[in-house]
Structures are given as structure tokens and as C-alpha cells.
Specification:
about 180 residues; three-stranded antiparallel sheet
């Protein structure tokens, strides 16, 4: 890794450390993770990353646009854009897959087969406990897939970060945050 890249990782990590959620949210995450320290640290770090790069004013705008998108889906039958939503910024299709909601996707737009189940899912995504449980299931799925292939914790966290976000920089920041927590 070159110096610019390392400086970028260091800068973002320091920025995000200042955004670690308060004790109430950390406890809530820990309880939803059944006090599993590894998953708790991963989810606290992801929460901190996502709230740093998507502060609440930005989320309010995103939520408003998603609400409009849901209205178009509900009343006009239009597909929904596969956006990242909720406090853990999971793709709508990721959450639907975890919850076994039937859908098809084309050009980053999702068409759901059952309106009721998807509206229920999209309404719950902004509930912190529901979002924690959904993100935890996704992390557990990634962990299960990669745990046997990785001999060390850094590689496992890197795989979680890359699968969760798709970016190696995200993975490096995630690893550094987990070490600090």
C-alpha cells in the first residue's frame, strides 16, 4: 500500500472514531448480537462508518426519496430502486434475500412479487432493533461463507467489509475500528 492510501485510511478511521455510537446504541447492538463480542464490534463499526458518511440530514433526504419510491411502487406498481437504506445501509435486495422475499431485479430496480411483505419490510427497516437483526444475519452469512477459508481475523474482517460494501478501503477502515473497539 502506498503512503497516500495509508493516510486516507488513517484519516477516515480517526474521523469515524469520533462517531462511535453512544453507549445506549452499543448496548442495543450487543443485546441483539446475543453479546457475541465479534459481531457486536463489527456492527458498531459499520454503524459508525455509515452514520459518518451518511449523516442524519442526508438520511432524511434519502428516506423522503425512498418514501416517494414506495408510493410509486404501491399505487402504480413501479419497481423500486435498489438503494441502500436504514441505519446499516443495506441494499433493499440484500434485506429481501435475507428475509426470503421473492423479487426480480433488472438494471438496479427491484420488482417484488408480494406487495404486503415488501411494504412490511420497508416500513420496519428504520427500526433500529430490526435493522440490527437484519445486518447481523447478513454478517453471519458472510462470516459463515468465509470463516473456513480464513486463517486470521484480519482476513475475515476484510472479507466482511468487502462483501458488505464492495470496497477494500471500507474493509481496512472496518478492521482498524474493530481493533479499537
Amino acid at each position: 500500500m502506498n503512503n497516500d492510501y495509508l493516510e486516507k485510511i488513517s484519516f477516515y478511521t480517526k474521523l469515524i472514531i469520533n462517531n462511535i455510537p453512544d453507549e445506549k446504541i452499543r448496548i442495543q447492538i450487543g443485546e441483539n448480537c446475543n453479546k457475541n463480542e465479534f459481531h457486536t464490534k463489527i456492527l458498531i463499526a459499520i454503524f459508525a462508518i455509515e452514520t459518518t458518511f451518511r449523516p442524519y440530514p442526508v438520511r432524511i433526504c434519502e428516506n423522503f426519496l425512498m418514501f416517494i419510491n414506495i408510493l410509486f411502487f404501491r399505487f402504480l406498481g413501479l419497481p423500486i430502486f435498489d438503494a441502500s437504506i436504514g441505519p446499516f445501509q443495506l441494499k433493499i435486495s440484500t434485506g429481501a434475500s435475507i428475509l426470503s422475499i421473492d423479487y426480480t431485479i433488472k438494471d438496479n430496480f427491484i420488482k417484488f412479487n408480494k406487495t404486503t411483505s415488501v411494504l412490511n419490510y420497508l416500513a420496519k427497516i428504520w427500526d433500529l432493533n430490526f435493522s440490527i437483526k437484519l445486518a447481523l444475519k447478513y454478517i453471519q452469512k458472510i462470516t459463515h461463507t468465509y470463516a473456513h477459508a480464513n486463517s486470521n481475523i484480519k482476513d475475515l474482517i476484510t472479507n466482511i467489509g468487502e462483501n458488505y460494501n464492495g470496497d477494500i478501503l471500507y474493509s481496512e477502515i472496518l478492521y482498524r475500528l474493530v481493533k479499537v473497539l
